[in-house]
Automatic annotation (TrEMBL):
Family: Belongs to the DapA family.
Pfam families: DHDPS
UniProt protein name: N-acetylneuraminate lyase
Presence of keyword DNA repair: no
Keyword tags: Carbohydrate metabolism, Cytoplasm, Lyase, Schiff base
Signal peptide: none
Presence of keyword Cytoplasm: yes
GO MF annotation: an example: lyase activity
Subcellular location, record wording: Cytoplasm
Length: 313
């Protein structure tokens, strides 16, 4: 099991679909190359962004295999295996280990709520045990799972029970809790930020890595935020973070992930819409979104340039 912690921008990858909603694996290799060329330093597969919860177990396996193959060892690949069936989640974890993924991660079951840390530890021990050779990150996203338990307590107590627990994907907005988690055995635990709109605040709190959806379409912007922060240029860091907020606000006027897939289409990747209940944008909606993004200057500042360094973190 590797001791290396994640660093920099990790893209929460999208799952390409044909117009009929079936998997379309063909764009994954080119999309992966494109992301890496933009400065992405890891791939988080079949998470919320990748519609993992809308895919069958068999589909999740082939998507995971495609991204591991596309990455070809150049960047770490984290496979998200969370499922309401812990047995299936454990099998997905075992599969991730078998195909050569670097890490495994999981949300908690959400249909039946988890209301105490002991139960959460029991559930994650079951899942992580499916891939004992891989480092395991718990995916904390209370807005979707409904589980808003004390994550510092989970790390403190879960680390004693789950030998391969190495940290959290922390997708929440509570910076004070994020700070508490960072301070729990920092030699062992890696706490990765997961709210794109608040990256600057997370950097100030101590984040050294982030997993996000909009890194797929605007990696240079976020690398610019990191570089400005590193240089101590807070005015520039705030300016760039404001662009991120406006971009996300604009995309959020539509079903978010369907709109994000449309923006990837504007960047040359035809990866379809989303599975229901998320759906897809109409042609008129796509055109309005394109115009709105253009008015923000998105098609200029989303591209690598000398002012948005890719060498930070």
């Amino acid at each position: 099991m590797t001791d290396n912690k994640l660093s920099g921008l990790i893209a929460a990858t999208y799952t390409p679909l044909h117009d009929d909603g079936e998997l379309n694996l063909d764009p994954i290799a080119a999309m992966t190359d494109w992301l890496l060329a933009k400065g992405i330093r890891g791939l988080y597969v079949c998470g919320s962004t990748g519609e993992g919860m809308s895919l069958s177990g068999a589909e999740r396996r082939v998507v995971a295999e495609a991204y591991v193959k596309a990455a070809a060892g150049r960047v770490p690949v984290i496979i998200q295996v969370g499922h309401n069936s812990l047995a299936e989640a454990r099998q997905l974890a075992a599969h991730a280990q078998e195909i050569g993924a670097n890490y495994v991660s999981a949300t908690c079951p959400s249909y039946f709520s988890i209301n105490d840390v002991d139960t959460l530890i029991d559930c994650m021990a079951e899942v992580a045990g499916g891939a004992p050779e891989l480092p395991f990150y718990y995916y904390h996203i209370p807005a979707l799972t409904g589980s808003a338990l004390d994550m510092a307590e989970f790390l403190e107590r879960g680390g004693k029970r789950i030998s391969n627990l190495v940290g959290l994907k922390y997708t929440d907005t509570k910076l004070h809790v994020f700070l508490q988690c960072l301070q729990v055995d920092p030699e062992r635990f890696d706490v990765v930020w997961g709210c794109d709109e608040m990256m600057l605040g997370a950097l100030a709190t101590g984040a050294t890595a982030a997993i996000g959806s909009t890194f797929n379409i605007a990696a240079p912007l976020y690398l610019g935020i990191m570089e400005a922060f590193r240089q101590g240029d807070m005015n520039e860091a705030r300016r760039l973070q404001s662009l991120s907020v406006e971009m996300i606000r604009t995309i959020g006027k539509y079903p978010f992930h369907a709109a994000m897939k449309s923006v990837l289409g504007m960047n040359g990747f035809n990866i379809g819409g989303c599975r229901l209940p998320q759906g897809r944008l109409s042609e008129s909606e796509i055109e309005r979104l394109r115009n709105d993004l253009s008015s923000l200057g998105y098609f200029q500042w989303s591209q690598p340039s000398s002012s948005l360094s890719t060498n930070s973190l």
